[in-house]
Amino acid sequence: MASAELQGKYQKLAQEYSKLRAQNQVLKKGVVDEQANSAALKEQLKMKDQSLRKLQQEMDSLTFRNLQLAKRVELLQDELALSEPRGKKNKKSGESSSQLSQEQKSVFDEDLQKKIEENERLHIQFFEADEQHKHVEAELRSRLSTLETEAAQHQAVVDGLTRKYMETIEKLQNDKAKLEVKSQTLEKEAKECRLRTEECQLQLKNLHEDLSSRLEESLSIINEKLPFNDTKYSQYNALNVPVHNRRHQLKMRDIAGQALAFVQDLVKALLNFHTYTEQRIQIFPIDSAIDTISPLNQKFSQYLHENASYVRPLEEGMLHLFESITEDTVTVLETTVKLKTFSEHLTSYICFLRKILPYQLKSLEEECDASLCTSALRARNLELSQDMKKMTAVFEKLQTYIALLALPSTEPDGLLRTNYSSVLTNVGAALHGFHDVMKDISKHYSQKATIELELPTTTQKLITTNDCILSSVVALTNGAGKIASFFSNNVDFFIASLSYGPKTGSGFISPLSAECMLQYKKKAAAYMKALRKPLLESVPYEEALANRRVLLSSTESREGLAQQVQQSLEKISKLEQEKEHWMLEAQLAKIKLEKENQRIADKLKSTSSGQMVGVAQEKAAVVTATGQEDASAKAVPEPIHSTSEIGILTRTSDSEAPDVESREDLIRNHYMARIVELTSQLQLADSKSVHFYAECRALSKRLALAEKSKEALTEEMKVASQSISRLQDELTTTKRSYEDQLSMMSDHLCSMNETLSKQRDEIDALKMSSKGNSKKNKSR
Fold first, then answer.
1. Has this prediction a pTM greater than 0.70?
2. Is this entry keyworded Oxidoreductase (predicted)?
């Protein structure tokens, strides 16, 4: 292994060296190209200098020739000036001389014209040469600036590489020293390990001899004394008590509790749905309070009135199934006997659905045949009839799979163990189908309710009944969705829990063997409890650590909690006193109410003799009553007010005759306000408890995630330590290669510096020559 690692490291170093060598060759090519470019530029400069020198010589010769011609023109002009006065004196001689002078002038003019054209041509050539020289000079300057920037960049790269390699050299030297020390310690440990391995080999030989002798003895004892092996045959193995998995049982009970809650919500929604459907039949399309409904709807209403006897057993069966799953039992399909009863209750409910389905379809057809039924309402009724058929079919499908799951607890050959997982997945699919059907029913019924709301004959009773049916359908939809998601989330656990049973076997053979196993389990648990000695009660260490943090955080608020407890106790005592006080007040008010009712009844009997006499007596009674009230208001003492946290109530003496209706309204309003206040407080307490429960669940999930992240980090730490050791080994092998590379790079950098210095000297010389040429051109 070590040689393979060294070969891999050497291969990596060889690859890095080949990469650096290729980079070095590229740099060399770049330097050679720059040198060739600089040589070409030098040759171009020499050629340009030679052409400039030739042009300068031509210019000098032309300027000299121009000066000569200018002098000659001046002389000729002087001669002409002198010859003009002479021509006036002797015209004859002048004519001959003028002819000669004109011929000479024409010759001079031709020569002058040629010289002028030649001068112009030379000026144009000089201007073009000057422009070309300026252009070449600008190009050379730009090229010089780019070369300077490239040289600066190369120098910066070289400086950075030198710093980097010096730092790596220092690090490698330090690592080398550390690794040398570590190698020495490892050699010592290797020697110790060799000695230990020799000792372990000796011990292994001794143990092998000892175990072989013991194995022979145990085999002889088993062959002589053991009558049979109970794990060899599945019939006997099924009677063995499996290892108790408390976590599995607690989770199974928790899941069963959640399923019970969902089934209770579903049962409540089904009861409301059937009851409100019965109320709707009594109202629409014919109101039973106005006219008699059809015999079909009467029979349908009679069947719907019996829905509780079919729906309630579902909740009871699920409750019995939940109670059968305890911490001490072994929960598998062979031991869940109560699932059979739940399946029977579900079968009876499906029979009820089959019984009411034709009546429900005929009732919807009767609604469609009504005179006020529109086409949209008729379409919604047809959709609802299809949905009801689907709902019954989904319940039948679900009952079939649940009956199959209940077979292993009653009939051992009813369902093969290999088909358990497929049946469970089909149950999940059926629950999702039930949820989809309920969503369709909710959608179509809401559309139907909105259409019926627009009808002119729609009563308020029908609107409220439709709202109640919609709320029950929504509750059914939500319950079905919760059950479907719950089952799909836990189907993997259900499938995995099927293998929970006796060791080295495929599971329980029959329900009888499962029942015998549970009895054996109870006997074994009782025996273990009898053997176990009672220990002193003590707090576990982990729980004590957890409680210590709580105590430390709650020491400051201990006094405040004590004060709150005292205040709450005082309030409780006050409330109990007020409760007794108001119970007495209620009894007194009841007695007074009975007396007033008797007085009013007597008064009504006395006034029943005649209408006119009654009216006169009422007028007289009113007059006398007003007088008596004025007198009694003066004579009656002031009312007594009783104040408390429950409310404020005014009491008068027994001699006062208060108005019955006002007293009843006062008492009723007071108790209604108190009931509203107590219900609001109860709702607030429930919401707080739900919030605290959710917060606790979230904290537990966060704790589990933190533990998982801790495990992952420990594994990452192990991997990182292994990688560190591997890198340290690689550093020792790469040190020499880096030193060789650094030496080669330093030689290459020296050669590059020399070439750069030569290029700078040449560029300076070119600058000087270009400056001299520009000065000469300016002077010219």
1. no
2. no
